[in-house]
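Hello,

I think I submitted the flavin-adenine dinucleotide job twice by accident. Can you confirm which output corresponds to this input? Input:
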Amino acid sequence: MPEGSHITQMDTVKHELIEKLSNIVGERNLLQGDALIQRSRHFNDARPPEAIALVMPTTTEQVSKVLASCNAENQTVVTHGGVTGLVGGDHSSSDDVILSLERMNTIEDIDLQSSTMTVQAGCILETVQKAAADADKFFPLDLGARGSCTIGGNIATNAGGLSVLRYGMMRNQVLGLEVVLADGTVISSLNHLLKNNSGYDLKQLFIGSEGTLGVVTRAVLRLQPAANSIQTALLAFDQFSQATATLHALSSKLNGQLSAFEILWNNFYRLSTENIDESFSPPLDSDYPFYAVIEARGDNIQQDELAFNQALEQVAEAGDIADAVVAQSSQQAQQIWAVRENVECTKQYGIRFRYDISLPIANMEQYIVETEAELIEQFPNMIFCCYGHIADNNLHLQISPQDDTLTIDAANTTQAHHQANQIVYQPLQAIGGSISAEHGIGKIKKTYLHLCKSDVEISIMKQLKLSLDPKSVLNPGKIFD
Ligand SMILES: Cc1cc2nc3c(=O)[nH]c(=O)nc-3n(C[C@H](O)[C@H](O)[C@H](O)COP(=O)(O)OP(=O)(O)OC[C@H]3O[C@@H](n4cnc5c(N)ncnc54)[C@H](O)[C@@H]3O)c2cc1C
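Support: Only one job matched these inputs. Its output is below.
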């Protein structure tokens, strides 16, 4: 009998299904009751996950059998990777089965001739990055949750992160996929070729589908040449227009080597540098309105360093950079990145509403000024900060309302969250923005999907969902109802 089970409280059908799943994955790979309670539901939520059971298959064949068995009983299934997603795509209820890919975490092959790596979906992103580096290659997807998030989760959310400017989103890193459909059918499309225009490219359907169309089990990833030289700098600007002018100037002067241009508003820079640790001193004065963490990657250490410094000097001479510090060692580069990556710096201020939006660069400054003013009217004591991947049109906002009447899970918090959502999301429609730049829609953004997708688009998305998962058993209530 599975560890910690309470089968007496279950109806017979569920009981039989759980026995079946236990036979498929093995007793030790199915958790219920007390064994489930010992786990955390999310990287930032220590409460146990809600589910009838959590299964951890070890092969694609097991995933297929689990899904076929659940589908036959109309049993809903929520797929889990590293549970670091930020839109509630991993949320489950006590009626769901959770399917975790954590035990399918093998790097199966690194092919240096075709510059590809074949991995199981439960591989941790950082493990993949390290394996690529050990093979003198580079896997460019990078984000703050690298130590916990999985390749399957990165694919399911079409993750973005810190290197999109040069290398694109997760979609651009995937050459082939193996996916299991709701009824257990395995689509094995483990293509290794850069060019393969043979009809519909089915893998694209599943990238970014947030576990609603199929379960990703394996992937062929594209590797890039390793960079011999990495230049990192922190820049400060007096005006937003100077930051955008610098972005454009460096993009052309560095011949495509610019791999990151991360903008920080003063409010984020202050909160971040004040909350790293006591010994941390801000790399630049804290009074500038805007900052940018920039990175360039190249092949020739001396030439690249010279070109990087010359490009910065030229932009500074044109009057666009107010101050700058260029990292002289990898340790200094880490300190600069620590400022950008300290996205938990508002955690101490209690309830937080976090946003991931995209909008034209030309609208960003005004949008933030107007949005902040509206938010202050609604939440006069709020802590507000803004940062993001400006070159990818992507900003992140964090709002801590600082209102003692708000408690987590209470109705008033839901209402306050909705009010903040309206203020942040509503103006995006008119300027061609999106309510999600990189995190997806999941559960928490689905009410606002109509602001960035037309009725026709949503209708076709629903038709695709029904044709691949007619019983709607996969990740119910995510993206749309
Ligand atoms: C500190 C921090 C920084 C972050 N920075 C970024 C960032 O810069 N850019 C960015 O894009 N995201 C970022 N994120 C969000 C998150 O890390 C990404 O969305 C990541 O891709 C999720 O991977 P995961 O394995 O944790 O997926 P999970 O959270 O487990 O799942 C996410 C979604 O994918 C589905 N899913 C998971 N695995 C599979 C699978 N094998 N098959 C089918 N569906 C699956 C789930 O059902 C769910 O809907 C950040 C998160 C944190 C905590």
